[in-house]
């Protein structure tokens, strides 16, 4: 993959990093603060049901997953700066639309546009940073770029609580000044490659992207509405069957298309396939855990959004230090064992909630221990599996592999929310604790399935179990990893 040549000196890398960091932090923070705002949004719109509200999260994830590869290829054809600024502008304007939405339907529509902006923004951010970073400093730049998501995760719950105290609209308004400042600065400092900096390769399969979107959306709809329609009703079964048919059509089309959304031969690489499957399953558990914790704190214990943010924060705050310090353990005992242990630790935290959480239970004895265990599990699992998936492929295929794992994680997020909402809706009124307990069991099961998916990695030779940051040492690999 061709790397564009910057028309600015490398000394501008700090300004470029500031621009990229602001945009990436904004888009990552948005994922966490919207979770915290979901109950407040429901109250604002006349007590909208959880099934309708879940599309505020799921609509974003579905569109982001479907457009990620397409957006990356458009950036290669049109130039990273142009696509990055376009994505930033779309994300910022869509945030205004979210804040002004008069009903849930309009909010979901604005979130779809916001996701399209994020899909344009994310694949170009690291490439732009590396274009203006000296070669000897690029590995450090990659690690700094990767840490932005961890910082957003740690600050997200508390920041979301603070913003919701002023009104849920502020979780979207906060994006506007950051987006405007990043756009103005980016227009001045981001490198503008010449014609040699772009690739005129064909666009990926757009119809395949539509099939993937339809399959995920239909599956999520069936899981969310099954409690209302009936799990054995013709409508639910027909919806789920339609999702399967669209998914099969997508796979068959991807096998024949010259530029598919998913390059299926990569899934025949055992270590990559195992890591991708484990990442998807683990993200199902993570998404269900995060939404479930917010709903429990605000809906069962009656916490304010701010108090909920402080209650949830210990878990996300553990993730960055664990991820940064897990490298020596990976080198010593292998990535497969670490990822397996992390998934089990995560599941143990969820099962602790199932055993101890009740309407009158104390935070320190029930929610907090589980939050610490889940934070440890995330730090041990996500960065390690990401490193394994990268190390399993040659650098020339890393961009595509990264896109597949990124899509898998977004699909996992959709399914995690949909499964939790479906389980919570199955139990009737007056059985809230039992409904959440069933939800915790479903989340723990997804984490244990992720642990099972890592078992083939345990048998891999030690060199395949790369340290989480090892991929950063190869500049071309890191540059492609923006996907």
Protein model, in words:
- With 483 residues, this protein is mainly alpha-helical.
- The chain is built from 19 helices and no strands.
- The chain has helices spanning 13-44, 50-78, 80-100, 104-131, 138-166, 170-173, 175-189, 206-229, 234-256, 270-300, 305-312, 314-325, 327-333, 335-356, 367-391, 398-426, 432-453, 455-458, 475-480.
- The longest helix is centred in the first third of the chain and has 32 residues, at 13-44.
- The radius of gyration is 21 Å and the shape is globular.
- It starts with 12 loop residues before the first helix and ends with a helix.
- Residues 1-11, 194-198 and 463-483 have low confidence and may be disordered.
Topology:
Elements: H1 13-44, H2 50-78, H3 80-100, H4 104-131, H5 138-166, H6 170-173, H7 175-189, H8 206-229, H9 234-256, H10 270-300, H11 305-312, H12 314-325, H13 327-333, H14 335-356, H15 367-391, H16 398-426, H17 432-453, H18 455-458, H19 475-480
Helix pairs in contact: 1-2, 1-4, 1-5, 1-7, 1-10, 2-3, 2-4, 2-8, 2-16, 3-4, 3-7, 5-11, 5-12, 8-9, 8-16, 10-11, 10-15, 10-16, 10-17, 12-15, 13-14, 14-15, 14-17, 16-17
Q: Radius of gyration in whole Å, from Cα?
A: 21 Å
Number of strand elements = 0
| Beta-strand residue fraction | under 5%
Structure classification: mainly alpha
Q: What is the count of DSSP helices, taking H or I runs of 4+ residues?
A: 19
Mean pLDDT across residues? 83
Distance between the termini: 13 Å
């Amino acid at each position: 993959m061709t790397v564009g040549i910057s028309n600015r000196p490398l000394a501008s890398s700090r300004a470029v990093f500031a621009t990229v960091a602001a945009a990436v932090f904004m888009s990552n923070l948005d994922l966490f603060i919207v979770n915290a705002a979901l109950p407040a949004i429901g109250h604002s719109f006349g007590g909208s049901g959880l099934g309708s509200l879940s599309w505020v999260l799921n609509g974003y994830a579905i569109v982001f997953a479907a457009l990620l590869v397409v957006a990356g290829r458009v950036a290669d054809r049109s130039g990273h700066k142009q696509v990055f600024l376009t994505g930033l502008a779309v994300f910022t304007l869509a945030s205004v639309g979210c804040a002004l939405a008069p009903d849930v339907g309009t909010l979901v529509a604005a979130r779809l546009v916001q996701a399209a902006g994020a899909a344009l923004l994310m694949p170009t951010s690291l490439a732009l940073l590396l274009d203006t970073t000296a070669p000897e400093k690029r590995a450090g730049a990659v690690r700094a770029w990767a840490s932005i998501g961890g910082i957003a995760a740690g600050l997200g719950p508390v920041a979301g609580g603070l913003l919701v105290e002023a009104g849920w609209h502020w979780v979207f308004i906060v994006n506007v000044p950051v987006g405007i400042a990043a756009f103005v600065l980016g227009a001045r400092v981001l490198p503008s490659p010449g014609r040699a900096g772009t690739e005129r390769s064909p666009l990926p399969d757009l119809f395949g992207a539509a099939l993937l979107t339809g399959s995920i959306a239909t599956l999520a709809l069936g899981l969310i509405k099954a409690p209302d329609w009936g799990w054995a009703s013709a409508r639910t079964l027909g919806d789920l069957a339609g999702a399967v048919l669209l998914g099969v059509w997508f796979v068959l089309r991807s096998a024949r298309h010259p530029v598919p959304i998913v390059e299926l031969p990569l899934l025949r690489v055992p270590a990559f396939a195992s890591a991708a499957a484990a990442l998807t399953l683990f993200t199902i558990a993570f998404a269900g855990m995060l939404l479930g914790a917010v709903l429990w704190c605000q809906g069962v214990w009656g916490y304010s959004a701010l108090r909920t943010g402080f209650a949830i924060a210990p878990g996300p705050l553990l993730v960055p230090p664990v991820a940064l310090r897990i490298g020596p353990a990976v080198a010593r005992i292998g990535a497969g064992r670490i990822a397996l242990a992390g998934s089990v630790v995560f599941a143990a935290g969820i099962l602790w909630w199932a055993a101890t959480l009740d309407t009158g239970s104390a935070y320190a004895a029930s929610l907090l221990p589980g939050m610490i265990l889940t934070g440890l599990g995330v730090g041990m699992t996500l960065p390690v599996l990401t490193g394994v998936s990268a190390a399993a492929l040659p650098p020339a295929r890393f961009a595509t592999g990264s896109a597949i794992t990124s899509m898998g994680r977004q699909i996992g997020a959709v399914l995690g929310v949909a499964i939790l909402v479906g389980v919570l809706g199955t139990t009737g009124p007056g059985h809230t604790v039992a409904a959440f307990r069933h939800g915790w069991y479903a989340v723990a099961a997804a984490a244990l399935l992720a642990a099972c998916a890592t078992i083939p990695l345990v048998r891999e030779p030690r060199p395949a179990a790369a340290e989480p940051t090892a991929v950063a040492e190869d500049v071309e690999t890191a540059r492609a990893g923006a996907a």
